[in-house]
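Sanity check

After download, print the first record. It should look like this:
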Amino acid sequence: MTIKRFHGTSRGRCRAVAHGGLVYAVATDTGSAPTVAEQTRSTLAILERILVEAGSGKGRLLQATVYLRDMVTKAEMDAVWCDWIGDKDNWPQRACVGTDLAGNDLVEIVVTAAA
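Expected structure tokens:
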């Protein structure tokens, strides 16, 4: 089986990898927006572009893990997520984890999707 890698600007890692009918992708807006809502919106737009480039889309998400710098902001992130993900037929299995993130990043999202 072929592995297709979608390289980004970060050394040593890809934005997405496609293999065996699945797409694995990650996105963050690198801390350019000042609020969790704005960073989530930007990160989801980036993620959607990556998924489409890799032959998938947000309606094909299977699993998502959202990493937040501060779990107090989960409701703010959730509001943007729910608006973006749309109809319940698009809902993936999702987890949300509080953790340290690099620089000014407030949110990072890792997904697995069907190709």
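If your output differs, re-run the checksum step. Summary of this record's structure: Residues 3-114 form a domain with the 60s Ribosomal Protein L30; Chain: A; fold (CATH 3.30.1330.40).
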